[in-house]
Amino acid sequence: MTFILGLTGGIGSGKSAASQWFEAQNIVVVDADIVAREVVEVGQPALVQIRHIFGDWVILENGALNRSALREHIFKDPSARQTLEQITHPAIRTAIIEQLAAAQSPYVILVSPLLFETNQHELTDHTLLIDATEELQIQRASSRDGQSVEQIQKIIQVQMPREQKIQHANDVVLNDGHLEHLYAQLRPLHLKYLAQAEIH
Ligand code: ADP
């Protein structure tokens, strides 16, 4: 089994920037956010189950999931969120395991904003946190997506606090400078992971 690195960080911390750097080193990256979208695509068993449980209103005319309607529904009714997660989480987990197993690279990365929150770290051998101050997170995420400061703060609030993530992670990189500064910190870690993967 290939050595699996779990990569995480709060919104705007620089996870994607770090993932892209690892991909440029020919490391396969499995993105939990992408998998989460894939498992509810047309024809997927999880989408059939969602329609069965929530009703036809959750499906658009073209057969795809009506994300905004579902989002609004679970926002109003927290138990509906739980029901939804009971369907999607196992499907996401299974798909992540399959994609990690199929990956062909010296080691493989699972990137997930909720690596610790959803226990996805259990699927990994080692974890790396991309850390940034809340101020930087807000600055970067708002200039990336044009989201309001309030929206970003809400997302930060439902994510595990920084200090707790720092305690959980095996390695921590503070992304508080230029991108070159981030890459300079990733380079020695990449060499360490290659060595760890060799003896894994
Ligand atoms: P995440 O995936 O953790 O939400 P991203 O990697 O997408 O965060 O980073 C958020 C935004 O900030 C992106 O536009 C990214 O290019 C930019 N960014 C990340 N790290 C840095 C940095 N060290 N210096 C400048 N911009 C950065």
Automatic annotation (TrEMBL):
One of its GO terms (cellular component) is cytoplasm. One of its GO terms (molecular function) is dephospho-CoA kinase activity. Keywords: ATP-binding, Coenzyme A biosynthesis, Cytoplasm, Kinase, Nucleotide-binding, Transferase. ATP binds at residues 12-17. Pathway: Cofactor biosynthesis; coenzyme A biosynthesis; CoA from (R)-pantothenate: step 5/5. Pfam families: CoaE. Its EC number is 2.7.1.24. It is found in: Cytoplasm. Belongs to the CoaE family. Catalyzes the phosphorylation of the 3'-hydroxyl group of dephosphocoenzyme A to form coenzyme A. This is Dephospho-CoA kinase. It comes from Acinetobacter gandensis. The gene is coaE.
